[in-house]
């Protein structure tokens, strides 16, 4: 049969759910509060959420974002070699890609202009570059990422309503609807 070798579309087991604009606005209203150890925690999470909403990047892609990845009005996902300023990191799909830098994301990032890794706690970035942290910390150098994101949702909705990857689905859906 001539169509035998054609790969079939994957059908999700569950319906794809996306974050509605009202849900996103509510999450922005319930950002984690600053702490003595992390006085910019709320601003960093504001930038993380805007980045996820406007780029569709994965968690690791956002956290490994550096200022050299932002150029010409675009945000680039590129692998990184180990240098004095970066820890080694590779893209999950192995494909370099770029998306437009949305004004909301740019504005949220400006608070961290002096940092090479704007979305990572400065101490974690220092320890990663120095090679002090290994294993899973290289993939997600944010303290308790899932717990913090879950806390945002519990404060905003009283329960957990979705995962961080849902921002990727939301972005893809928004782009498809814009065509």
Report on the structure:
By secondary structure, the protein is mostly helical. It has helices at 21-29, 41-55, 59-63, 103-109, 122-129, 136-139, 145-157, 166-178; strands at 70-71, 74-77, 97-100. Strands 1-2-3 form a three-stranded antiparallel sheet, with no helix packed on it.
Number of helices: 8
Strand content bin: 5-15%
What structural class do you assign from the helix and strand content?
mainly alpha
Helix/strand order, N-terminal first: HHHEEEHHHHH
Q: Report the strand count.
A: 3
Residue-averaged pLDDT, rounded? Answer: 86
Most strands sheet: 3 strands, antiparallel
Unreliable runs, pLDDT <50, ≥5 residues?
A: none
Shape: globular
Instruction: Summarize the amount of helix as a percent range.
Output: 40-55%
**Distance separating the two termini:** 34 Å
Topology record:
Elements: H1 21-29, H2 41-55, H3 59-63, E1 70-71, E2 74-77, E3 97-100, H4 103-109, H5 122-129, H6 136-139, H7 145-157, H8 166-178
Antiparallel strand pairs: 1-2, 2-3
Helix pairs in contact: 1-7, 2-4, 2-8
